[in-house]
Specification:
With 273 residues, the chain is of the alpha/beta class. The protein is built from ten helices and twelve strands. Helix 1 packs across helix 9, helix 5 packs across helix 6 and helix 5 crosses helix 9. The chain binds 2'-monophosphoadenosine-5'-diphosphate (ATR).
């Protein structure tokens, strides 16, 4: 191939740690897509300028990470329904004059649970811990799977209530504080940032049972505090590495119209954590 590869990148601050270039390079090789994918460090006050430069240089699309997902939502001229619902954008695609904003985080989580872990969400009792940006991004994709109920529990009840109100028309969702949930759930998803401090959201151990999947949206070399807590109370556990790979695959599909296989990339990333 002699033409120049299409340019993509992940933009954030910090960005050096991002695994996205590695993931997308593997997807491109596996699907014979002619593209290059870089890391883009934008100044904290320079997101829009950095994106304009990238577009000016012929860039075709960006992944957006901390702390720019809200700015990317505002920057997009066209939003997908799931990006509007998430209130945040992790994928930009530059189509002529249009800037498409999408959010693939939620579908990444759902695909990892349903396809990779083999646990259906349909008709299940789902407990979502947290009501910040990470939680908000997954509410609509979870409701689209028709759970029996989705309970959003948060330290600050008002934030959970706001999410439940926002999505109440989309499915059976309600808000709770941590102290009021004690019955067993089929799926418990930790979308709080507690794992960053090696803390566990203060949820009763009775939410876990032998049939429960406890899912932490964070990942690392070792199990998170939440995963250790859930394991101690009999649940099966999974971390967010699969969500990372699946959201990347969905972004790749948004840009290229080709769906890469994720299993090999997931296994390689796991081995190198
Ligand atoms: P993110 O984008 O990662 O979701 P965020 O919007 O700051 O970040 O939200 C962080 C979430 O983690 C919130 O739900 C927060 O609870 P509050 O809304 O009550 O602040 C939750 N959180 C953070 N640390 C926690 C802890 N130690 N225990 C329980 N919840 C915690």
């Amino acid at each position: 191939m002699s033409s120049r590869p299409d340019r993509y990148a992940v933009i954030g601050n910090p960005i050096a740690h991002s695994k996205s270039p590695d993931i997308h390079a593997r997807f491109a090789a596996a699907t014979a897509q002619h593209l290059q994918y870089e890391r883009l460090l934008a100044p904290l006050d320079g997101f829009a300028a950095a994106v304009r430069d990238f577009i000016g240089g012929g860039g075709k699309g960006l992944n957006v990470t901390v702390p720019f997902k809200l700015e990317a939502h505002a920057f997009a001229t066209v939003l997908t329904e799931r990006a509007r619902a998430a209130g945040a954008v992790n994928t930009l695609r530059f189509d002529g004059a249009d800037i498409l904003g999408d959010n693939t985080d939620g579908v990444g989580l759902v695909t990892d649970i349903v396809k990779n872990a083999g646990v259906a969400v349909q008709s299940k009792k789902v407990l979502l811990l947290g009501a910040g940006g990470a939680a908000r991004g997954v509410v609509l994709p979870l409701l689209m799977e028709s759970p029996r109920e989705l309970v959003i529990a948060n330290r600050t009840l008002a934030r959970a209530q706001e999410l439940a109100d926002t999505f109440g028309a989309q499915g059976p969702v309600r808000a709770s504080d941590f102290g009021s949930v004690s019955d067993e759930f089929d799926i418990v998803i930790n979308a709080t940032s507690a794992s960053l401090a090696d803390e566990v959201p203060p949820v009763a151990p009775t939410v876990f049972g032998p049939e429960t999947l406890a899912y932490d949206m964070m990942y690392g070399k070792a199990n998170t505090a939440f995963m250790r807590f859930a394991l101690d109370h009999g649940a099966a556990v999974r971390d967010g590495l699969g969500m990372l790979v699946e959201q990347a695959a969905e972004s790749f599909f948004v840009w290229r119209g080709v769906r890469p296989d994720t299993a090999a990339v997931f296994a390689e990333l796991r081995a190198r954590l």
